[in-house]
Design a protein that fits this description.
Layout (H helix, E strand, L loop, with lengths): L5 E3 L2 E3 L4 H6 L6 E6 L2 E6 L7 H10 L21
Antiparallel strand pairs: 1-2, 3-4
């Protein structure tokens, strides 16, 4: 199937036929990823589904370490938001 990139305000988009959205179970929210110069669209109806299980897996795999130390002073001059 071919689709045309169209202007939507200051952005661009594509129209996805209803039958494709239904087949992919896409309702309102999606996740967009770019891999190997390809756009991947997946449904995202429950973005936090199974987080509890994933966090437990991280703990069991010892992957639940802090990225930023608790001792970081957020008022430090070199801190960038």
């Amino acid at each position: 199937m071919r689709a045309k990139v169209i202007r939507i305000g200051n952005s661009k988009g594509i129209r996805i036929p209803a039958y494709i959205l239904k087949e992919c179970n896409i309702k309102e929210k999606i996740r967009l990823e770019v891999k190997d110069s390809k756009i991947i669209i997946t449904p995202m109806d429950k973005p936090r589904k199974n987080w509890d299980k994933k966090f437990k897996e991280m703990k069991n795999n010892r992957e639940d370490k802090l990225i930023i130390s608790d001792n970081v002073g957020l008022d430090a001059e070199d801190w960038e938001w």
